[in-house]
Amino acid sequence: MQKRHQQRFQQLQPHLAGAQVLAESYFRCQQRAADVLQDSLEAALTTEQFPSAEHCRAWLFQVVRNRCIDSLRKQRKLSNDDSFDFTSATAESTATEEGYSEVHQALAALPFEQRDILVLREFSDCSYAAIADILGVAEGTVMSRLHRARLALSKELQRRMGESQ
Fold first, then answer.
1. pTM for the whole structure
2. What CA–CA distance (Å, rounded) separates 140 from 121?
3. DSSP 3-state assignment of 104?
């Protein structure tokens, strides 16, 4: 049993930094993100359905993403995504956090779906195929959502630059 956990951890270890970035994009709190990552890692090490090495990264990110969403739901005591405002859950804390760059603040101001896909692609360097697996959508959908998210981020950054001048 211990050897199996060690082998799994070795497969997951190269992806932990990216998973931490993903979790931080939900909470804007390194400690809370680390807690969710730890919980995700514990589940990953003990599950019966551990993926093959080539699918390990996308699978871990999917586990972390789902755990983050579950944690936010529990916090808000809501039962579905439609009635949960993910943007306000992170944007409020980001606005008051010192040390976050303009890009992080602009990212936090975006709707959840746009922020999520940008973090997976630009900060965690996931492929379109991996993002499609993580989000459960087609690759073409990933490409179009990513394009719209990049435009929205650019517009938000321009808006912020205009306010600061």
1. 0.74
2. 14
3. helix
pLDDT digits over 129-145, tens only?
999 999 999 999 999 99
Alpha-carbon gap, residue 49 to 17, rounded angstroms: 22
Which ranges of the chain does DSSP label H, i.e. alpha helix? 2-12, 16-27, 30-46, 56-76, 86-96, 102-109, 112-118, 128-135, 139-164
Which token pair is 8?
């799994």
Residue type, 119: V
Q: Tokens 């912020």 — which residue? A: 160
Task: Please name each of the domains of the chain with its CATH number.
Answer: 2-164 (1.20.140.160)
Q: Which residues, 6+ apart, have CB-to-CB distance to 77 below 8 Å?
A: none
Confidence of residue 79 (pLDDT cuts 50, 70, 90): very low
Q: What are the tokens at 30?
A: 């390194």
Distance, in Å, from the CA atom of 36 to the CA atom of 31, rounded to the nearest integer, reads 9
Residue length of the chain: 165
